[in-house]
Design the sequence.
């Protein structure tokens, strides 16, 4: 059977088969404190705001990290494909390939805590071509029990990429920077509205090291949808056939590290109360890499609701001095 005939028989959800408006089923997740603490552990975040209380302590409902919306309202693009009569390319038996992360934009409307039941919806929002590659953007929204949206995000995947594959880099000759495994927020060092001047560096940096064990742990954390045991994050042989030439961590994992970095510089309410974050993947974040995040204020302003907004640019650079990700955050100061 030719590749064309096999693809037709299997009804692969290729770029040409994707239609704006195609949707998947709804999901419901009731968050537990254990879920929240496990997400923070996968994000290598020791911030006590996201940790289980000590035995005998009753701290009330536990706050979730903002980017946990990617877990309690997951994308599930393979299930969107299935709901519309197709087979996702990642699950193909005849022409399996990955549709990797390119960028994500998240928006928040209020804090989320343990004990809440959250409904996730997902649909194709946009498709476009750029520089020889083809992209599909999905919109995922999370709603509370009253039907109000608490968070939403637009997640863009590369459905077809232009010719060429990245090579796996040689190990660095020098020692990478030490990971800041124990760094926790200090409110005395937080950025404030008064000192948020364009060009001002964010007060703290953060170095995060990636490991195969942590990539596998993050892949196993699933609150809704079917598990994916074999992908470019967990299967080196399959990963070598795809754009990155080897296994890499997931875009949402890197986004959780950006979240942790932001949390060292401002309180989480700066995102939760009407903030947003856009992260673009530039260079793969591989096991063994250490990426250092830093940022600076790029602008300030207000809105019609009297909120004071600060825009920041955040860069993640690995030990080879390669730009791994580039993020833009809008922080709300009330």
Sequence:
């Amino acid at each position: 059977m030719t590749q064309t005939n096999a693809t037709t028989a299997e009804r692969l959800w290729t770029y040409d088969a994707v239609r704006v408006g195609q949707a998947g089923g709804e999901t419901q997740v009731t968050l537990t404190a254990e879920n929240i603490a496990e997400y923070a552990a996968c994000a290598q975040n020791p911030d006590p705001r996201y940790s289980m209380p000590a035995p005998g302590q009753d701290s009330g409902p536990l706050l979730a990290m903002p980017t946990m919306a990617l877990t309690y309202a997951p994308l599930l693009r393979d299930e969107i494909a299935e709901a519309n009569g197709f087979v996702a390319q990642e699950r193909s038996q005849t022409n399996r390939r990955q549709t990797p992360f390119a960028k994500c934009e998240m928006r928040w409307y209020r804090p989320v805590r343990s004990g809440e039941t959250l409904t996730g919806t997902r649909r194709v929002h946009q498709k476009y071509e750029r520089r020889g590659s083809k992209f599909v953007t999905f919109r995922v929204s999370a709603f509370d029990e009253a039907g109000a949206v608490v968070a939403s995000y637009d997640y863009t995947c590369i459905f077809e990429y232009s010719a060429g594959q990245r090579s796996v880099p040689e190990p660095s000759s020098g020692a990478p920077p030490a990971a800041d495994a124990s760094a926790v927020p200090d409110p005395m060092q937080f950025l404030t509205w008064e000192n948020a001047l364009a060009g001002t560096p964010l007060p703290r940096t953060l170095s995060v090291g990636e490991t195969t064990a942590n990539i596998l742990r993050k892949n196993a954390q699933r609150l809704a949808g079917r598990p994916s045991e074999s992908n470019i994050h967990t299967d080196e042989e399959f990963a070598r056939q795809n754009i990155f030439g080897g296994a890499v961590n997931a875009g949402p994992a890197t986004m959780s590290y950006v979240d942790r970095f932001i949390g060292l510089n401002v309180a989480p309410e700066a995102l939760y109360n009407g903030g947003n974050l856009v992260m673009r993947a530039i260079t793969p974040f591989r096991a063994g890499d250490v990426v250092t995040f830093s940022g600076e204020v790029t602008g300030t302003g207000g809105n019609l609701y009297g909120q004071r907004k600060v825009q920041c640019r955040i860069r993640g650079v690995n030990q080879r001095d390669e730009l791994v990700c580039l993020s833009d955050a809008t922080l709300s100061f009330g």
Summary: The CA atoms of residues 47 and 291 lie 19 Å apart.
